[in-house]
Specification:
Number of strands: 5
Radius of gyration: 23 Å
Distance between the termini: 36 Å
Order of helices and strands: HHHHEEEEEH
Largest sheet: 5 strands, antiparallel
Shape: flat
Structural class: alpha+beta
Strand content: 15-25%
Number of helices: 5
Strand order of the largest sheet: 4-3-2-1-5
Helix content: 40-55%
Length: 188
Amino acid sequence: MKKIIGYFFQGLLYVAPLGLTFYAIFLLFNLVDGLIQRYLEAWIKVHIPGLGIVIIFLFISFLGLIGGTIIASPIKRAIDKVLERAPLFKLIYSSVRDLLSAFVGKEKKFTQPVLVKVNTISELEKVGFLTQEDLNSIGIKDKVAVYFPHSYNFSGEMFIVPSEHVRPLDMAPTDAMKFVVSGGVALS
């Protein structure tokens, strides 16, 4: 009986990650597809699974195309100006905009994975991403800004650390993020 239970848990280790991944993708697919699907069904009178996702993808890509042109710059500045005047919207909008641009914008910020010594006595080190090498503009000298993502979570913390405690890692930023978010389990 003990061996059968062992085999069961071994099988669970193989099946659970795959099953949870497919389930999460299925839920995301249904959520995104469902956003526009009922309007499409009313308009074309036919249910086509995935058409909502295709239309949303094309719409967002079209917005990206327009957003990258000269025509959209004044509109974007006007929207930014309006949102900057609303206190609550300003905080949420600017935080989300900056976070997204750090990952996928033209000015990607999480490009340099680093290893930071966070405790000199125990030699404890932490993997993070260098976000600012020069903090003189805010009156801090000889320190850098490092973002530390949390494991098994999509959040993190930013620390100001002495630059001599920071060492660049020879790995791709995506591999470093995967390594940290997985709690050190995923190492490619």
